[in-house]
Input
Amino acid sequence: MLSNITIGQYFPGTSFIHRLDPRTKILLTVMLIVCIFVSKGFMGFALIALFMLFCAKLSRISLKFIIRGLKPIAFIVSFTFILNLFLGAGTDVIWEWGVLSITKQGVRNAVYMAVRLVLLVTGTQLLTLTTSPIALTDGLERLFSPFKKIGFPAHELAMMMSIALRFIPTLIEETEKITKAQKARGADFESGNLLKRAKAMLPLLIPLFVGSFRRADDLAMAMEARCYRGGNGRTKMNPLTFAKIDLIAAGVFTALFAAIIVLNIFGIF
Amino acid sequence: MPIQVEHLTHVYAPGTPFETKALDDINLTIEDGEFVGLIGHTGSGKSTLIQHLNAIMKPTSGRVLVDGEDISQGVKKSDIRKKVGLVFQYPEYQLFEETVEKDVAFGPKNLGLSEDEIAVRVKEALEMAGLEEEQWKKSPFELSGGQKRRAAIAGVLAMKPKTLILDEPAAGLDPKGRSEMRRMIRSIRASGATILMVSHSMDDVARMCERIIVMNHGKIALDGRPDEVFSEGEKLHEMHLGLPAAAVLRDRLNTRGFQIPANVYTIEQLKEEILKALKKE
Output
């Protein structure tokens, strides 16, 4: 069950998008998010969606895989949709039942918010699917390094992030293992009311915590044994460099951003 | 009653590019009271097989019968787990309670037994595990590696399974821990339980088991008494498996002109054979 989660997963490849500098990809993802928030209407969304489709094709990652990554947020999307549907302000009432009412604006708002959420997650997914966690944290570290002068711990944050990412699969595997082991001892994770189920999680959570501390200890020791002393004076095996493709990508994104602004100005929703 | 495995096949991640056949038409019967060793190269399907024997995993096709009942259909899970106890690799990572005693009581509690019955079972299991009484009230996290392992196995023993499956019970233990583990397994054996032990140590298997099953690529490659299995050095070697130390020595001596029978695989037998051969000269 847990291994079905594809969100945040890296899909190795050598496509145009894969080869972009991680810094470019991070910045352009931020720009894409800005585009999504700036866009006032569905025309803008359609344009962004089309653009994402183009990026997905370019990255040679199957659409099925990307759509599967949306599963975990299905609940949040439907929740937002329903909330907006019933709580939308407006006067054009389409349907009414007691205190519940649906207005035209409400419907529009609900669809708008749902589409926006899906686009946001798809956009960020494209980043994580095409960028290895190591490249991602590398890029973040470089992007934040100018702020080191004012005491921002860029290297430490990046290191913590890569460690956290590194251990996600390990923890998932460990969870599955302990679940099985406790099931073999007759533990029941599936039946009973909420309180009973929460209690049933203890035999799973405690070993998981203990294991995490043990791993953290081991890792700290291993890092010290290899003379890790923080980021000062550390060099990179593969220093990041911008190339021509980064410039091209930046150009394309700027065009998209401009198009969204134009749509907004001319009021094409 | 025996455990019967009929045409058991398990496929991981079917329909994806990661599809792999972990078990391929396995047929197997484990009789009551047997002590079976299960060996095989990493990825040969041992772990997948044992997880089917107490319904932790479901077969893709085929079935597993315990006491004549198909365990993937309509049987209560807790009933199967009462009958077939499964101890995973590194079981000490499943410890979670405040005291060793309470942790061992977790299994029997899940079976819905009375307090008195639980207390009796916990005591029996901990004694079998060779843990001193003063350790019973300690936190399981204060024990040594070997003791933790034995406490965790006691947690499964307290459910009084008729069949106990152990996945690499001695992996990662120091020599003292290993010998204590062997002592524990022998006392479980003495209590009359059927044991299926997965191991990478040919010496452990040779020393303890009466029957050895060798798995290779999801199939059963060899199945027989230790002397039968360990006389197939060539075949085992092809499956990236070794022989017990005594059998290795046997083969080396034979290439230098000795004529020790191929079914010799323990140190004691080998000693006798060597003495016999030397006396003849």
Chain A touches chain B through 18 residues (CB under 8 Å).
